[in-house]
TrEMBL record:
Designated name of the protein: M23ase beta-sheet core domain-containing protein
Domain M23ase beta-sheet core: residue ranges: 90-188
UniProt KW keywords: Signal
CDD domains given in the database record: M23_peptidase
GO molecular function terms noted in the UniProt entry: metalloendopeptidase activity
Lineage of source species: Eukaryota, Metazoa, Spiralia, Gnathifera, Rotifera
One matching Pfam family: Peptidase_M23
Organism name: Adineta ricciae (Rotifer)
């Protein structure tokens, strides 16, 4: 029986993990990074009215904080676009970074689409690249909460080499209203969507959506073995 696209992609990502270049320009390791947990099960987070206040207590001077794949979160209740559809399962990884931090291409790709998703608590400026990993294995990477400058002079089909400068992290005033960070997501099948793709799913849709959006740890190489759905 033929494997579905998501299963083929997960297998190919597993075989090719050593081929990906660091999206921050340097590897993420236990020496410079820590796992970020803003899930409903984080009891420390529950002490704070806003998740941003909790995140500010973390040691950003010495570590980059990232995580969130497959997490159930309640932070999206502030936006009706999430709450009305009961979306609460995170499909990508969030990486806390300073405004204007450069982001680099992890693998040879070309611009599939881009747009400024400028509604409150949306992605803000977003770039989606498409990649050919192996024969008959095609996938996409999404970069959300970028600066508006990152979209200037982009063209659909434009090629980005491995390690090439792709974009910059956006400020809260332009990135959808979030504290500066990168939302990074792998997508197996974009369907007909362009410039946007859900980064959060409902509990009902989560198994299918997580299978279509494999764990970004395959590319990031941190913090542990990728979670497979």
């Amino acid at each position: 029986m033929a494997l579905d696209a998501g299963t083929r992609l997960i297998a190919a990502l597993t075989r090719n993990q050593q081929r990906f270049s660091p999206i921050l320009g340097f590897p993420l390791t236990t020496q410079n990074a820590r796992s970020l947990d803003i899930s409903v099960s984080n009891k420390e987070l529950q002490k704070y009215k806003r998740h941003e206040d909790y995140v500010r207590t973390l040691d950003h001077a010495n570590f980059i904080w990232l995580g969130g794949y497959g997490e159930e979160r309640n932070i999206y209740a502030q936006s009706t676009s999430y709450s009305q559809t009961n979306r609460c399962i995170h499909l990508g990884v969030d990486i806390t970074l300073k405004f204007n931090t450069p982001i680099y291409t992890p693998f040879l790709g070309r611009v599939h689409s881009f747009q400024n998703n400028n509604q409150p608590f949306d992605y803000g400026p977003t770039i989606i690249l498409e990649h050919d990993l192996e024969e008959n294995v095609h996938f996409y990477t999404l970069y959300g909460h970028l600066s508006t400058v990152s979209l200037e002079n982009l063209t659909v089909g434009q090629t980005f080499e491995v390690g090439q400068l792709l974009a910059y992290i956006g400020d809260k005033s332009e990135n959808g209203g979030w504290n500066p960070h990168l939302h990074f997501q792998i997508i197996s099948d974009m369907g007909e969507m362009k410039g946007d793709y859900p980064g959060v799913a409902s509990k009902i849709d989560a198994p299918t959506m997580l299978h279509n959006c494999p764990d970004p740890q395959f590319i990031l190489g941190f913090p542990e073995k990728p979670i497979i759905y």
